[in-house]
Write a structure and sequence with these properties.
The chain is α+β, with helices and mostly antiparallel strands and 138 residues long. It is built from 5 helices and 4 strands. The protein has one domain: Alpha-Beta Barrel (TIM Barrel), CATH 3.20.20.80. Helix 2 runs parallel beside helix 4. The N and C termini lie far apart (37 Å). A hairpin with an 8-residue loop joins strand 3 and strand 4. A two-stranded parallel sheet has the order 1-2. Strands 3-4 form a two-stranded antiparallel ribbon.
Length: 138
């Protein structure tokens, strides 16, 4: 089944209409690359999901969907590594809420909330930032 069709059937999408949430794709891609190309060194970059604009700060900070996203994607990545994939690094997208070319500042990809209305651009860790902290400490 094509990835897009599977994602539609599961109704798992991030805020962006082009971003489907399919954790098994992480394992599938890493495993395929490892098998097809002689287990090259792999670095995963820009893996993340966005929240819609217009939420309250408290809603942004309680990003349980993002926590589930990272937990499931990293679980699939670990499965690929345990199977022998040569994964050297992983970079979440993104540390901070930032400017996105298509949606400007309204789409929130960061694990740290940035108040773009504050003159000092105040930053507040989201639940997903604390989840990453706990993951990395163990």
């Amino acid at each position: 089944m094509p990835l897009r069709e599977m994602a539609n059937r599961l109704d798992q999408r991030a805020n962006s209409n082009w971003l489907y949430i399919v954790p098994s794709g992480m394992y599938g891609c890493v495993h395929y690359l490892s098998q097809k190309y002689g287990n090259p060194a792999i670095v995963i970059t820009e893996n993340g999901m966005d929240q819609p604009g217009g939420l309250t700060r408290d809603q942004y900070l309680r990003d349980a969907t993002r926590v589930r996203f990272y937990r499931s994607y990293l679980s699939e990545l670990k499965k690929a590594i345990d199977g022998g994939a040569n994964v050297l690094g992983y970079f979440a997208w993104s540390l901070l809420d930032n400017f996105e070319w298509i949606s400007g500042y309204s789409s929130k990809f960061g694990i740290v909330y940035v108040d773009f209305n504050s003159p000092t651009l105040d930053r507040h860790p989201k639940a997903s930032a604390y989840w990453f902290r706990d993951l990395l400490q163990h």
